[in-house]
Fold this sequence. Notes:
By secondary structure, this protein is mainly β. 11% of the residues lie in helices and 37% in strands. Among the domains are: 1-57 and 77-169 and 211-218, YVTN repeat-like/Quinoprotein amine dehydrogenase (Methylamine Dehydrogenase, Chain H, 7 Propeller), CATH 2.130.10; 490-516, no CATH class. The strands form 7 sheets. The protein has a 6-stranded mixed beta sheet, with no helix packed on it. Strands 5-6-7-8-12 form a 5-stranded mixed beta sheet, with no helix packed on it. Strands 1-2-3-4 form a 4-stranded antiparallel beta sheet. 35% of the residues are buried. Belongs to the WD repeat TRM82 family. Its main location: nucleus. It comes from Friedmanniomyces endolithicus.
Amino acid sequence: MRRPYQCLVAIGPTPRKSTSSFHLLAACGPKLLLLSLDEGEIVSEWGSADAVAEVPEDDEDGGGERPKKKQKTAAQAKPANIIKLTISCDQQYVVAVTDDKFVRVFSLFDGNLCELSQRCMPKRPCALQVQPDNATIVCGDKFGDVYSLPLLPEAALEPGAEPAVATQTTPEVEGKQAFKPSATNLTVHTQRNRKSLEAQMAQKAFSAKKEPVKFERKVLLGHVSMLTDVVHATRSIDGTERGYIITADRDEHVRISRGPPQSHIIEGYCLGHKEFVSKLCIVPGTDLLVSGGGESELYVWDWAAFTLKRTISLSDAALSIRVTGVNGLLQPDSNDSVRNPSNAKKEIAVSGLWMVPCRGQGDEKETALLVAVERMPGLYALPTSRLLPMHGKELGLTLLDLDHPPIDVACIGDSFVVTLDAREVGQDRLQAYKMRHVGGQTQAGRMECTQDEELEEKLRSINTYATTDIRAEAKALDDLLYGVANLRKRRGWVDTEKVGDDDPEGEAGVEDVAED
């Protein structure tokens, strides 16, 4: 079984090197690969196993059991998978998040991946973005907090310095004291509390409290619910460019806050979702925001005015235009359970929203919105010029058929690359496409999609890269690639007779605790 690429980022020619070419950065489990599209070869590689090797090594002069235990612990440590990947606006730095809660910064000055710093966050980050100043990272975690971090810690700025490691450490306790709970058998009466007391008495020592993180970090804002996505937007007000932070959470909220240093000021909310919001996408050059989540509709907002402009039905789109990757038109299969509108409202979970380039009439440049639904082998497409209804007409989406469910999308020139959940040997995990907006009165929203064979030839080396892992289980890969549907709140667990007046919907007792 091969690992698919779970994260994808395109790197264009940098201002410092006008002759530099496009590169593609792909994350495959714990590995990070840099592909040169000019050479068609992988020019640099990094693995999180190298970070595991930074565990203190054995003392050569020491003996006994203690060094042997250290070596065994380091050998059993599993490499951390990369779960988030982004790049700075100047194309010079890459920021990655691994599932061991580390935020890692890499440089791309020499066309090679060089790790500059690694910082361990208190909770696992779920959203990541580099600010336009190319000096600040905005990081949101599942507990609802959004932080700002300097892109480069001071230690990483020194020439020839080793990667700066800033972790959340746990102090060693000398002469660990025996744990003595304050409760006793005389003060505990219920069976449940008595079992808890017995478990506490079985503890041998106090668990040391964690020290505060030892690197610069500022809290920008917070949600009382699980945070799902963070995007940065700008808007000109009285001739001044002002930044905003737009956040989404599990409790159907889309919040617009001011950018630093006034991020504590909430400008307003875009309210209307009835299920969790998982993805946000800003339409370039406009005040439009597209949001999607656990519903069968996309929401189009004027985020500056906090108003809903339109909803786009994904279940109706399953009955509209459907195209393959080679310009063929197919009729929708009524027996296809994945795209059956009767099940769409229950099963749809939007896992990705991207803006990609496309060609319009007369070969003018346009942009299109791509929408991915978790576990569905296809992409919905709609030109951004048709996001708002024109003359009262509701235009459907075009459905691009794929062989496997899409995971991530990256734009390269006039094309875009899709990474697919293709796990069998011989299947292409990356495919390249070009898109064209077909005009006309009857098919104003239709998109034509063709495979970019020239670009796919340059992707051959990364498609054939040996990432076969016999230890990779299907369930472990599913947990890594698919987690959006788990945001859906599970109702009906509690007996309706026991639900109090303060819980009219019967949601009492539902556990909505975020993971670390």
